[in-house]
Amino acid sequence: MAYISVLALFLTVTNLIPVSAVGFLPIAFCAWRFFGRSYPSFMGPLTALTLFIVVSTLLYDPRSLTEFEFYRRDGNFFISYAPIFAGCVYSHRWDMNKMLRAFFVFAVLINIPPYMLYLAQNGLLAIFKNPGDSFGSFFIARNAAGGFLAMMFCLGVACYLQRRSKIMLLLIGLNGLMLFSTYSRGSLLGALAILPYLYFGRKRLILASLMSCLVVASLAMAFYHLRGNVDYMGYPFSIQNADAKVANLDIRYEWLWPRALTYFRQSPIVGMGFGSFDDTIRHVASYFGVFSVPSDIVIEHSDSHAHNSYLNFLAELGVVGLALVLSFFWKLITWSQNGAARAALVEHGQNFTAYRFIELSCVCLLVMAATEHRLVAPSNVLILSLVISLLLASRPVRVARPANNPQVVRPKPPYREHVPPAPPRYPAGATGRIAPGS
User: Fold this and answer.
1) Where is the O-antigen ligase-related domain (predicted)?
2) Which residue from 92, 21, 106, 150 is spatially nearest to 351, judged by alpha carbons?
């Protein structure tokens, strides 16, 4: 089963063929192994969030759970996070430091040919003349390519922290150039955010401040652009701008973020329903201003979302959903920090790269989530989920004794040597009687 996760990890380099989603398959074959085991603390909020999403979907549109398009678009949360649960049902004894280093080298090298072709056709600075001339790697969307390369940047830094080398620095720099050429500004921001996070010591106060500021800033931007005379529940909106990047920003400020805020204000506790953001809702029955039931709905499974994970979770799942998401990432980062410290101080560096990558990639994801719906995007999250899966399944590596170093047999001390019993004083046939005439 571990080979399935490794295969899925190496296939995350593309979404042209969505084969990297096979990371959940161990659950189908070994589901009974969930029972009788202990799990890290972050599994609690993740399990609660998954159950909450399932219940929300059953109440909003239960038929969508049987539709393939739902899992590709509105319900890609299940595709992105299922591999974490799969890591609870199998085990392996591989060296994850070497495995992740090999994956990083593979991902960078396989992108060199298309990147060289891109540079030959467009040049390094073509994105400033025409934003459409950006590097897409092996992904359909530029934001997907940027998110993947940002996660690879985090992996490269983690590999470098585990074992420093000039070759690794060269590969990290090349990965950074590829990320720059995607012109995915949210991905660049997320990748750059891990540098001050490392510089200032990866403290919990910094992490708490970062998460709080991202949520507050997202809500503030949505409130600032909210217009009272616009019907965000049903008003058709479109942007006409020759610059695609400017149009992309305009539609977020003027439509998507205020629409998400309107959803949240209708039902602030549990949201309007999972997958509801891109649907047409013609009627909403409100109960005391804290809970709403939508009706007369036109279901659409599309790529439309709030372009902000925090606002999207508030719109569809309310305060409860966002609290579970933030709790999961908080506990996951804490677990990875403790694991990296234990690996460095006690376990001779075993799995250090995996723990450090999880920590850095979570910070990167949280920052990127303020610009896109990155917390559920498979191109961004699957790498993290598969590494967590392999780390949960990891067991201590067996170290064989070298053949050229035989064990030295030390002689026993004199007081522990076996002393044979003294021979008998009389022959075996003696009776103890005195012979006559003696």
Assistant:
1) 173-326
2) 92
